[in-house]
């Protein structure tokens, strides 16, 4: 059996490890558009505040380690999957180095392409000094820019925005957080807990600009100016983190989707196509996992369903 894995961050590496550990006979091919795998993006704040001293420490594994699990696993880095044909079990892939496009066949496919940051439709969002926060390269840019910045404006009050505000409150920076489209941390906690988070950030010197919406960015070469619904703000650096969207366009119209564009899956992360499974970072920690089932056993069950069919591991 041949399993193709599309994308290789946390969920992808976990799936590869389980498949080649418990089904060493399976051929596994991983396609990843980046030159690296398994970057722990949720640890970026720890790097920015100095808790993690080297950015490379946020890689949880590497190709050499995973290939050592077995002879039947192959990684194709800097390869972008352009198309997935669920009917023919065929994918089209472009080598980003040479530009060459090839095809590959699968028996089972695990889709772990992750997400991409939402870029708000705001004028000036791509100007120098206005950065996103998602991957290794973003972390490098934010870290280098913050070295010479005194004031930092965080735009977005989700968990990434809150973590960045908290991180920079310990580094001597003047930190402000703008959030107004939705309540602070509204996707994650209730209002009472969000208020405690707000109070804690304020006690550490973070200026909380709630019920305020960023509408335009400008730059004079030294500072970033943010026009908001309540006036003009400015800072040396602005970091925009207003959310993420699931990267699911390759499977659109081929598997069942949810209203938000995410892929609809069952309790085993299987899509409406029995030969395609979907894993994401949040899937590894979802409440679907039975409370008494160890995480590793739970993931083994999911990967067993990919390689063996619908019969779960007991």
How would you describe this protein?
- This protein has 314 residues and is α/β, with parallel strands linked by helices.
- The chain folds into 2 domains: 2-114 and 247-308, 3-Layer(bba) Sandwich (FAD/NAD(P)-binding domain); 118-240, FAD/NAD(P)-binding domain (3-Layer(bba) Sandwich).
- The chain is 23% helix and 27% strand.
- It has 7 helices and 18 strands.
- The chain has helices at residues 10-22, 44-48, 63-67, 136-146, 159-168, 191-203, 295-308; strands at residues 2-6, 27-32, 73-77, 79-85, 90-95, 101-105, 108-111, 115-117, 130-132, 151-155, 174-179, 207-210, 214-219, 224-228, 231-235, 237-240, 244-246, 276-278.
- The strands form 5 sheets. Strands 3-2-1-7-18 form a 5-stranded parallel sheet. A 5-stranded parallel sheet has the order 9-16-10-11-12, with helices on one face.
- Helix 1 packs across helix 7.
- Residues 281-308 and 310-314 have low confidence and may be disordered.
């Amino acid at each position: 059996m041949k399993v193709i894995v599309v994308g290789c961050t946390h969920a992808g590496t976990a799936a590869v490890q389980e498949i080649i550990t418990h089904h060493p006979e399976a051929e596994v091919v991983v396609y990843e558009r980046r030159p690296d795998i398994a970057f722990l993006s949720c640890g970026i704040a720890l790097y920015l505040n100095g808790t993690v001293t080297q950015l490379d420490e946020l890689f949880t594994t590497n190709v050499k380690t995973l290939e050592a699990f077995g002879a039947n696993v192959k990684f194709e880095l800097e390869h972008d999957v352009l198309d997935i044909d669920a009917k023919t079990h065929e994918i089209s892939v472009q080598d980003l180095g040479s530009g060459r496009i090839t095809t590959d066949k699968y028996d089972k496919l695990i889709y772990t392409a992750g997400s991409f940051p939402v870029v708000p439709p705001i004028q000036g969002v791509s100007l120098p000094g206005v950065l996103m926060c998602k991957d290794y390269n973003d972390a490098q840019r934010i870290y280098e820019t913050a070295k010479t910045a005194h004031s930092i404006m965080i735009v977005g009050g989700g968990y990434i925005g809150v973590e960045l505000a908290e991180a920079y409150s310990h580094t001597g920076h003047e930190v402000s957080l703008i959030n107004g489209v939705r309540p602070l941390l509204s996707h994650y906690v209730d209002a009472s807990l969000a208020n405690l988070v707000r109070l804690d950030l304020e006690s550490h010197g973070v200026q909380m600009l709630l019920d305020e919406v960023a509408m335009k960015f400008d730059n004079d070469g030294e500072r970033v100016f943010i026009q908001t619904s309540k006036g003009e703000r400015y800072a040396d650096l602005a970091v925009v983190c207003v959310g993420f969207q699931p990267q699911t366009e390759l499977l659109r119209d081929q598997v069942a989707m949810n209203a938000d564009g995410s892929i609809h899956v069952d309790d085993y992360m299987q899509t409406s196509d029995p030969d395609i499974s979907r894993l994401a970072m949040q899937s590894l920690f979802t409440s679907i996992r039975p409370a008494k089932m160890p995480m590793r056993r739970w993931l083994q069950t999911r990967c067993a369903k990919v390689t063996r069919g619908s019969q779960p591991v007991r």
